[in-house]
Write a structure and sequence with these properties.
Elements (H helix, E strand, L loop, with lengths): L9 H9 L5 H15 L7 E2 L1 H9 L12 E2 H18 L13 E3 H8 L3 H8 L6 E4 L5 E6 H10 L1 H9 L5 H18 L3 H12 L3 H8 L8 H13 L4 H8 L3 H17 L31 H8 L3 H8 L7 H29 L14 H24 L1 H12 L7 H21 L15 H17 L21 H5 L2 H4 L13 H5 L3 H11 L6 H8 L3 H20 L1
Length: 566
């Protein structure tokens, strides 16, 4: 467990200490306020203690004798440390921060900006917000809210552009520097530091970079970090050849690292704990009962997916979508079977990469088809979750109304956060629900019953820890703001894994998919559409070899990710 960040500013250190035993909901609210405050700070200004306390807590206490005002530059540097400290000491989990939107790993941020981890750490001193979030195994991981990343990009566009243009010292350059350094030391007798400083001026590099090169200390990263970088590139649609060239590694090494990283990403999800043991599971996706066997999403689900604003999402959620008992049971079976199948394939990969080894003593990588089938099964599970949650969307709004008043009159931020919270609770209820026929009963409860109980408990806890959010908003205020990322809440493994948000479905925008060329759209629909398929299945459908089909999938992902980022 990483040590909590130390705070140098007395006002922030005092606040962190006071909030050690505060309810988690209250701490999350203060974290949100701290993140919003960063954008308001002027580095050249100075801020009194009363202003800082009010901005971070909303509390106006008795006016005390003011100490020396806090410089804006110091406050901007310390606030990200406060946010990390509060999230760490409150044992924040991924499900607690759904309202923060998409969470990016440090590797994903590095890849997005084309910088290393040390550079990202320096950016945090300039206001880049990060949270300490515990995964399903209780391990603490640093994640970055996408909103904070985007805000930082707007403030420091030139700085990021300059950093991305920086190139690492390649092997040929290191070899040349080493040779020149050896000649200079032999001729002049100068120290390594002086030789490095001299060469740095000649080649336009920093003295430390040159010193590492001539000392034979390459800035390489541990194997796990290299694997994470490979995985991030793969998720963005880069092919194995391009990744190998960029990393200066062989195709075989990249393939091995990629398979191991994919297996590790799946292992941390603890998928075997996410499905009832009573249900028999198939041995392959082909043997699964594919729910209602629809080739497209239901109309109600499509309306939810197409909603781009909070107002549109609210209107799409209101109508009751009465899913019949048989269809509901079919989608529940699909969900449980898909998760269990993915867990089985991950278990097989764990055994293979554990004690067993190849003839050369190296660990045997997991089978590519097994990893592909596990990921495809999770896409099926997401498909089932979206259908089941869409059918309960009206119930989510009713539960919000029961604890907080009319949804339309809530503050947009509160309403969005409540919807996300409700969707997450509905997803949790799905994981524990068993259709009556699986218990050998002709009649039994419907999914709405456990969903309603989960919603009531989750939303009551959510609103209890917040300031008054009842119907106090002026009716004239618009809800035409961006819709919350409810899909991540519906599918916990998209964020709980703390990986690239594109790893299962690079984009969900129907308008974006419509902009693809016809051949690319065909590949997309086969791989990521309502009936997700493995690479082998895509190859069979298109009449291609498996390697060619894999290349086609990566190309389409690369195109879609590029379009989505514009």
């Amino acid at each position: 467990m990483p040590a909590w960040p130390k705070l140098k500013l007395p006002v922030l250190a005092s606040l962190a200490d006071e909030l050690r035993f505060a309810p988690k909901a209250a701490v999350l609210r203060d974290i949100q306020r701290a993140a919003e405050t960063i954008d308001l700070i002027d580095d050249a200004a100075a801020y009194p203690r009363s202003w800082i306390v009010f901005r971070l807590t909303g509390y106006r206490g008795a006016v005390e004798a003011e100490l020396e005002p806090t410089p804006g530059a110091a406050l901007r540097t310390e606030l990200p440390r406060l946010i990390e400290r509060l999230s760490a000491q409150s044992a924040v989990e991924a499900t607690d921060v759904q309202s923060f939107g998409t969470l990016l790993t440090q590797a994903a941020v590095c890849g997005r900006w084309k910088v290393d981890r040390k550079t990202v750490e320096r950016y945090r001193k300039s206001g880049l917000v990060a949270l300490r979030v515990r995964d399903t195994r209780g391990r603490s991981t640093l994640v970055f809210p996408e909103a904070s990343v985007l805000a930082f990009e707007r403030r420091h566009a030139a700085r990021l552009k300059k950093a991305a243009a920086f190139s690492r010292t390649d092997e040929a350059t290191r070899s040349t520097l080493t040779e020149r350094a050896a000649k200079l030391r032999a001729r002049t007798g100068a120290s390594t530091a002086k030789v490095a400083a001299h060469l740095a001026r000649k080649v336009g590099r920093s003295p430390s970079t040159v010193r590492r090169a001539v000392q034979g200390k390459t800035p390489g990263t541990p194997a796990r970090r290299r694997a994470a970088d490979v995985l991030m590139r793969w998720d963005a649609g880069e092919g194995v050849g391009a990744i190998a060239k960029a990393a200066g590694r062989t195709r075989g090494a990249v393939i091995h690292a990629l398979l191991v990283a994919r297996a590790e990403r799946l292992r941390v999800l603890a998928l075997s704990e996410r499905t009832p043991s009573q249900l028999a599971t198939p041995r392959s996706i082909a043997e699964m009962d594919h729910g209602a066997k629809a080739d497209v999403f239901s109309d109600h689900t499509l309306r939810l997916l197409r909603a781009s604003t909070l107002e549109q999402l609210l209107e799409a959620m209101k109508p009751r979508n009465a899913m019949d008992r048989a269809t509901e049971a079919a989608w529940v079976r699909t969900h449980h079977a898909a998760v269990a199948l993915a867990a089985r394939r991950v278990g097989q990969a764990s055994r293979r990469t554990g004690a067993s080894s190849g003839t050369d003593g190296t660990s045997v990588p997991p089978n590519a088809d097994a990893m592909d089938e596990a990921e495809c099964a999770l896409r099926w599970a997401l498909r089932a979750r979206l259908e089941l949650i869409a059918a309960q969307s009206a119930l989510v709004l009713e539960s919000i109304a029961a604890v907080a008043g009319e949804p339309e009159r809530l503050e947009p931020s509160d309403l969005g956060a409540a919807i996300v919270r409700g969707v997450a609770a509905a997803g949790d209820a799905i994981e524990g629900f068993v259709p009556p026929e699986a218990l050998r009963r002709e009649i039994g409860g419907r999914l709405a019953a456990p969903v309603s109980l989960a919603l009531g408990k989750s939303l009551a806890e959510w609103f209890a820890g917040r300031e008054r959010v009842a119907a106090t908003r002026r009716a004239t205020r618009s809800l035409a703001v961006a819709a919350p990322n409810w899909i991540d809440a519906a599918c916990p493994w998209r964020v709980a894994v703390l990986a690239s948000p594109t790893w299962l479905d690079p984009a969900t925008s129907t308008s974006l998919i419509a902009r693809l060329t016809e051949p690319d759209r065909r590949v997309w629909e086969l791989r990521f559409g309502p009936r997700p398929q493995t690479v082998r299945e895509v190859a069979a459908a298109l009449g291609l070899s498996r390697p060619r089909a894999g290349e086609a999938v990566q190309r389409v992902v690369r195109v879609a990710v590029a379009m989505d980022s514009k």
